[in-house]
Amino acid sequence: MKQHAMGGRITAALIGTALLLSVPPRAAVAASATNPVPVRINAEQLKYDYENNIAYLRGNVVVRDQPGRVLSSDNATIYFGKQAQAAPDAAAQNVAFGNVERIVAVGTVRMVDGNYRVIADKAVWSKLDNKIVLTGGPPKAMRDAAIISAPRIIYDLTSQKLQFQPKPTIEYNLSPEERTRLLR
After folding, report:
1. d(Cα 56, Cα 51) in Å, to the nearest integer?
2. How far apart are CA 12 and CA 44, in angstroms?
3. Tell me: the pLDDT tens digits for 121-140?
């Protein structure tokens, strides 16, 4: 496995720009052509597996995209797709750094998007279906005074709606005044 490791604080703009520091210029072109939404990723450590097109991020990982979504975790793994090179040569495939297939975040996972805050042990951000699936803990979604938990929470990035599966539990954190009003 051919890997490149980087220590210290890593900041990647336009998904994978930090990864582009030691790759051929052709990969840099692929990033801008295939990633229309800017994404910034911060982590304390980065290790990249060139053979499998996987980036391993460790320590205070924060993924931010242009609409303002934030996904943070202790660690994350980013799986990149491949793109055929224009000119045939010995390496038949080239990493398309903007072509992120999925991000798997583990540890203390937190997702914030607008009014929603979700905590979980694991999140899988799939670019193919444009959803984030949160599991473990069990995951909890918070909005205003409501806390909803379920074994699996699915956040649709397109519709910006949460789905809770199976058997969600809803809790309300009401102020004493609100509680008194409801119990009258």
Report:
1. 13
2. 12
3. 999 999 889 899 999 999 99
Q: Tokens 């789905």 correspond to what residue?
A: 163
Q: What is the pLDDT of residue 168?
A: 95
Size of the chain, expressed as the number of residues it contains: 184
**Identity at 173, one-letter amino acid code:** N
Report the relative pairing of strands 140-143 and 116-126 from DSSP bridges: antiparallel
Query: Encoding tokens for residue 24?
Result: 């051929």
CATH number attached to the domain at 3-183:
2.60.450.10
pLDDT in tens, 62-112: 998 877 889 999 999 999 887 643 333 333 344 445 688 999 999 999 999
Q: In 153-163, which positions are buried (b, 16+ CB within 10 angstroms) versus exposed (e)?
A: bbbebeeeebe
**Which segments of the chain are extended strands (E)?**
3-6, 10-13, 39-43, 45-49, 54-65, 70-84, 93-113, 116-126, 131-135, 140-143, 146-149, 152-156, 161-165, 169-172
pTM of the model: 0.72
From CA 98, how far away is CA 116, in angstroms rounded? 27
Q: Which of 125, 96, 98, 94 shows the shortest CA–CA distance to 109?
A: 125
Q: Are 57 and 73 in contact (CB under 8 A)?
A: no
The per-residue pLDDT for range 12-64, each reduced to its tens digit, is 333 333 333 223 222 322 333 444 567 788 999 999 998 999 999 999 999 98
